Amino acid sequence: MSTAGSPSSSIAVPATASSTRAPDPGDPGQPHGRHLWVLSLLALGVVYGDIGTSPLYAINECFGVHGVPAQRVANVFGVLSLITWSLILAISVKYLGFVLRADNRGEGGILALGALVAAGCAPKLRRVLTVIGLIGGAFLFSDGIITPAISILSALEGIVISHPDLGFLVVPATVVILVVLFAFQRHGTAAVGAVFGPVTMVYFLTIAALGTLSLLQSPGILAAIDPRHAIAFFADNGLAGYAVVGSVFLVATGGEALYADLGHFGRRPIRLAWFVVVLPALLLNYYGQGALLLRDPSVS
Questions:
Q1: Alpha-carbon dihedral of residues 126, 127, 132, 136, nearest 10 degrees?
Q2: I need a surface site. Which of 11, 31, 131, 149 has the fewest CB within 10 A?
């Protein structure tokens, strides 16, 4: 994919955004100052759009038909604790702390990782690793097909809540939006980031504000940060509790984009965007939803 920015873009795109190689952390050319913040804004629109839509459906799946009842306060605390530590351990520690270091000459993604691992191996082992890499790539393609459809459907289904008579428009509108989005992607990563970065920033600020308003009404939900609630959740719910983990993992979907887009933005902008904007906004929204469930379990 070409990553050349549009000359008419209102956001100046630093050279790093269109580079095929992320700068080395020890390189004096590592982005800093204004360039670092601009790259972080671009990364918001390209890297974090997927994981940012998880609050639209993750909580509902945990307490939905296949989940556990939200009428039990302990379940709400347990699920929120699982969500919190999934984001911290899977994204903050695993991806941002370790996986981003496993770059192949600045590039990320399953194929770049496969090539890095296979280097210097015996021919037979190299073939095995190549097959594993291709299987991983196939999984990534399937995720790229399914996730956008689910995210946009989840967003548009909100229309039905206020206007039930418009339900027939949800699927056609989803198809139109998907076609427009995929058609726009041909303009490259920098152009996509320049358009969707500011939009995504507004989105994260909005979900953070909505979560905060709900959280202020039931601040006791903040106790869910204690991991003992997650442990107690498994002890109380048995196999049903372990089944909910599949729904909890929805909060981390899109985390693979951090590594896949490493070559476009570099480590520092991706990390900065996560810790300054994305993680706080996600946690505020999830805890706001948990606070709402404490006040009215029927909304699950």
A1: 90
A2: 131
**139: its two tokens:** 């999984």
| Token code pair at residue 228 | 């003992």
Burial environment of residue 41 by CB neighbours within 10 A (0 to 12, 13 to 18, 19 or more): buried
Average pLDDT over residues 210-217: 95
18-53 pLDDT tens trace: 443 444 444 444 667 778 888 888 888 888 888 888
CA distance 114 to 126: 9
Alpha helix ranges (H) inside the chain: 33-47, 49-52, 58-62, 73-86, 110-118, 123-156, 158-162, 170-184, 189-217, 228-248, 256-260, 262-265, 267-273, 279-295
> Mind spelling out the 3-state secondary structure of 264-298?
HHCHHHHHHHHHHHHHHHHHHHHHHHHHHHHHCHH
Q: Kindly report the number of other CB atoms within 10 A of residue 45's CB atom.
A: 22
Query: Tokens 């996986």 label which residue?
Result: 99
**Distance from first CA to last CA of the chain, Å, rounded?**
40
Region of residue 255 (left: phi > 0; alpha: psi -120 to 50; beta: else): alpha
Please tell me which residue, 228 or 188, carries the higher pLDDT value: 228
- Coil, strand or helix at 58: helix
Enter the pTM of the model.
0.76
- What three-state secondary structure class fits 65? coil
Residues 6+ apart with CB under 8 A from 223: 77, 229
Least confident of 138-142, 176-180, 187-191: 187-191
Residue whose tokens read 């929204």: 285
CA–CA separation, 11 vs 2, rounded Å? 18
pLDDT tens readout for residues 271-298: 999 999 999 999 999 999 999 999 988 7
Token output for 159: 């229309």
